[in-house]
Amino acid sequence: MPEISTSRPLAEAVATISRKIPVGAALTSREWELVPAEIKQRAMLSARVASEALLAEMQTRLKNRIELTKKDGRTMDRGVFIEEMRKEVQLSGYKRGDAKRGSLQDLKSSRRLGLIFDMNVAQVQGYAKWKMDMDAGVLNASPCYELIRGAAKVEIRNWPQVWQDAGGKFYGEPGPDYPDAPGRMLARKTDPIWRWISRFKTPWPPFDWGSGMELKNIRRRESDQLGLTDSREVLVPLAQPFNQGHTLSIKGVPESGRESLRSAFGDSIRFDGDRVQMQREASPETYEQSKQTIETSLRGRAREQYLQASGELDRLRRNDDGAEVGFQGEVGSSIAAIYLAQASAVSVGRKGLFHDTMALADAEAFFAATRGFPPQVATHYQDGHMLMWRRDLTDLRADELLSEMHASRGGLRMGYGLDEPAFNSPHVLVRIFQAPKQEGDVPLVGFHAPIESWQTFADARARDISDAWEVETETEWELIR
Amino acid sequence: MISLTITADTAKANQFLVEFTGSLQDRRDLNAALGSRLEDELQAHFRLKNAVPNKMGAVKTNFWGAVAAATKLEEVSDSGATVTVADKRFRIHLFGGKIVPTAGRKWLTIPLIKEARGLRVEDYESKVGKKLFRLPGTGVLVERSREGDRSTLGTNTATIRGKSGAFRPVQVRARSQVRPVYALKRSVTLPKDPHALPPTADLLAALLDEGNAFLNRTRD
Fold first, then answer.
1. Which residue, of A171, A252, A446, B39, is most buried by count of CB atoms within 10 Å of its CB?
2. Strands B81-85 and A2-5
3. Mutate to test the interface with A, among B10, B42, B73 (most CBs of A within 10 A)
4. What are the C-alpha distances in Å from A174 to residues A158, A171, A373?
5. pLDDT digits (tens, 9 = 90+) for A290-302
């Protein structure tokens, strides 16, 4: 039976906000408009906010809003979000700089925080509705949308012009929102125009900053009568809302922001100098596969690669007929396991580069174990240095990478955030252990990272281990002056 | 031949019972169509409410528009469909209730002028560039003003709202002219809105129309 509920959150919206990954980056709003829509959908982001910690605080509160949870007797709403985030921004040491107090550029302002709240809530609600609208039963019962005004605004954009410029058609008599328009703005739900009219390239509202335009369902009978659909037609839902190929300028994005993107999206994106490009294909035939999130997919593939490689290493040892296979003994096996975990992170694009020094026997074992990795994975051994990277995700060559290692400038490449020359300045020493950490345990991974962004790099490297081994990790850090 | 009957469930509010004669293979798709239509009817109702101008003639807060945006078909299955209004603020209009200050605050601030509607006190002060005063014993936040409705202070002291939300005394010249901006209330009781949802008869008619359209479409 159909029923109306007022007490349940939207499950898909909850899942969407939960999947969002705080990705701080110092870009302007205009630059973020160019962010590939799929990254935007998955990234909790806000222009000119480089602090992942602050974005994570926003995400937690937005999640509470979407989940309709109560905390300290009150539910999260716009006013509470603004009030609490103002305090968090204050605590973060935020400096307004040249931004005018109370303006949109002022992160502490109600205008700015209110916009962040409105946009993020609207985006996840929009996506949740889009997912349900792509249900075959729903789509065939109401196959089209009409672009209508849902909220009164002081300044009204000329949406019929935007619609026309995007190639949209008009149907019937104009509606009350735009009585001078050539007709009503209607299109099939699967029509790409819904992305083209959007400043953010998402096929659901909001379609612009502070826009009050909404989508109204058009029932099948009306859609057939207006000629948008045929009564005998069975409509096929879209697998996912985006196409591949979007690019984004990430000029000015700090390394921690790039590392966040790399760790979150792996080989779904490719870095090319100051640009990043989406690499995924959209295909209705992979509808079931496309339901899987990028994060789940990366985790599963990394685990698979790790198991394949460690299994191959074990097989080599069992087939040993007296020849010495690398990574001997218990210590050697432990080291191999750590290397292969990092290698599997490289193979799915989560870690930009693996490097370590190895004896020849170990290197041969490493080559053999990772032989089954995808063809895009490049491995190079020279003068005791082992390198592994993805050819398709970087234009660097082996000799260039080696040169950086020799100059002790490999920290950034390997996703540690800090090259050795910076060790003389204050920074953080990070150590990652398998949980629960016991007295006397040796860290699995240790590296030096910048003070302002060590957490980003620590989380990324911890994920390399946890994805491959399916274990929990603990991170320790120490300020080095 | 399949025929459809839809009635309101008297045992459970906001549920509708769907009965049909004959065999129906694809119940899920029928429920998808009905759920989608229910979503449309609710959204249309909320958008109509949103279009009504407020009594103050102030810039709209678009509350009912936000409720419409939060109304979604949430779940579809062989046994039914659920439309969720995922905005907690809607519940108090549906059921009535008392609104009280939260987060340690003592007062609710009720706008008395259209310029203050939809704005927090801090945002109003920031917008107009004036600090608000509390008139002693009146529970009203006022601003110095020569415009609009104004009162004249009889004494030369008032209370200014400080950063922490508490009040502290401040000197104001006697016979200053002030305008009330917000009323301070300990709580506000909202009655149940009888028009929070569309009339049940309208919803039933819409669902029956959708159900018959589905049967005609799938039969052809």
1. B39
2. parallel
3. B73
4. 14, 8, 58
5. 445 667 778 888 9
